Amino acid sequence: MTSAYVDDVLLVDRCKTGEVAATRELFRRHRHRVHASLYRILGSNRDMEDIMQEAFLQVFKSLGSWRADASLATWIDRIAVRVAYRAIENRRRVPTPIGGSADDEQLGSLPSPSTSLSASGLDARAAVVRLYAALDALPAGPRVAFALFALDGRSIAEVAQITGATVTATKLRVWRARRALEATARRDPALAAYLPEAA
After folding, report:
1. Distance CA 54, CA 84 (A)
2. Which residues contact 184 (CB under 8 A, 6 or more apart)?
3. pLDDT tens string 100-134
4. N or C: which end of the chain has fewer CB within 10 A?
């Protein structure tokens, strides 16, 4: 039993008693990772504060169901991913103009592609806008798996654990997303820089 595990158990127990300092500590420990993952999945920060708030409201509401069979971080990530799924579905009900979802804060949160897009940062920014326009066309499952794997840098096994899917199903989702994005990249080569090697 690691000290981190014991620390998580004690922190959750304190949160469940309603200790305000403990809830603040839990939020402080996990907010940056959750925020970054949500950005990479959703691409837009227009509603990010509301989505973050919803994710942590669900975390605190569900603390009684954490059984420590997974790390607290993984459990929180699962909740955040479920909130992201709902945000994707809600967004599909309200169409947004293509290219209108990315802004400077979102663009700054993405990893740099493995190859240089151009000497101009504007070209890279435009490529990211086009990437998220292409991601918007994907079903939620492949989109989330691809974003966690390719943009957030998580392993296939970790993506499977967070999304509650098998490793095989996760590989298939990433492959489907990659195949769809490769088709788009044939018309827009700048997107190819964001496509990882096959999982």
Report:
1. 10
2. 134, 191
3. 444 444 444 455 444 433 435 556 777 788 888 89
4. N
